Amino acid sequence: MESLETIELKIILSPKEPWNEVITAELSEQGFDSFVDTEDGLIAYASTKIDVDSALSNSSLKENESFKFQLEKNIIPHKNWNAKWEENFHPVYIESFATILAPFHQRDSARGVIIEIQPKMSFGTGHHQTTWMMTKALFELDAMPKNVLDMGTGTGVLAIVTEKLGAERILAIDIEDWSAVNAAENAERNNTRNIECLCGDIDLLGNEKFGLVIANINKNILKSQMEAYSKAIENNGTLLLSGFFTSDVDEMVTFAEQFGFTKTKLYEKDEWAAIALKS
What we know:
Layout: E1 6-14, H1 19-29, E2 34-38, E3 41-47, H2 52-57, E4 68-76, H3 81-88, E5 92-94, E6 98-101, E7 113-116, H4 129-139, E8 147-151, H5 157-164, E9 169-174, H6 177-189, E10 195-199, E11 210-216, H7 219-232, E12 233-245, H8 249-257, E13 262-269, E14 272-278
Parallel strand pairs: 6-7, 8-9, 8-11, 9-10, 11-12
Antiparallel strand pairs: 1-3, 1-4, 2-3, 5-6, 12-14, 13-14
Helix pairs in contact: 4-5
């Protein structure tokens, strides 16, 4: 397995809003996969294989009259990763449905279904608005299908939720090998038995059909994989998508309609969106 050293990019913004959300979205499309909101900006994390200069040149973090910013880049050895998360990772409450905790958190204030996550380098702790909305959407489904596909699984949190809600077969895929390993570890940590975690991309899908397809990635990848989702989903199956802004909703819905999907529900949180669609 490749080195798990991590790039930590500390970003101070003035003003913070709405640029923290804009930059989070931009950096997520450039390969940054974990984000922590801070009082004066954010911290972005990525594996050391990311070309940071290229990522920054494709973001708003360059000469810009709309806001001021400061950057600090650090390399975190793998052994220090969990300590970094413990500094910033607080329990996440998905309304009354669920609580996402780390192993070092007390459970006294937890409510609903408890999901314990050791995040390591993977995206999906529940702190980000997209994961929060997708988790809520899972609890609001009329029924949990037996077969579930979770594309871009990250920590595996959404896959774990689906099993706790009754799914009997969950295929969780991520393009990063360390995410697939982390998701498998978290699945075991939560005593789930029906989750298969694989490293790869959409080409791993065979002829298996799923009653629910989850994809929390980004707009461009979602669009590039939409046809594959349409082939992998059962008739009258549910597709849950997130990783884009509310301003992108109409574009995403119109694009999905070309593949036989119809929007059934919209979620919005701090300018981010998630949509539920039927095949």
